[in-house]
Amino acid sequence: MNTDPNTQNDFPVDWEEDHYVSRREFFKFLTLAGGGLAVGTVGISTLANRPKSELRFQPALIASIKDLKPGESLSFGFPRENDMCILIRPTESEFFAYKQRCTHLSCPVEWRPDQGRLYCPCHNGAFAIKTGKVLQGPPPRPLPKIMIERRGDEIWAVGIREGEEA
Amino acid sequence: MKRTLQLRRQQKSVVVVGLILFGLVLFILQLWLFVTTLEEAIAGHHRASWATTAASILLVGVDYWMLRGIYRLDRSA
Ligand code: FES
Question: B9, B26, B31, B37: best mutation site toward chain A, by most A Cβ within 10 Å?
Answer without folding.
Answer: B37
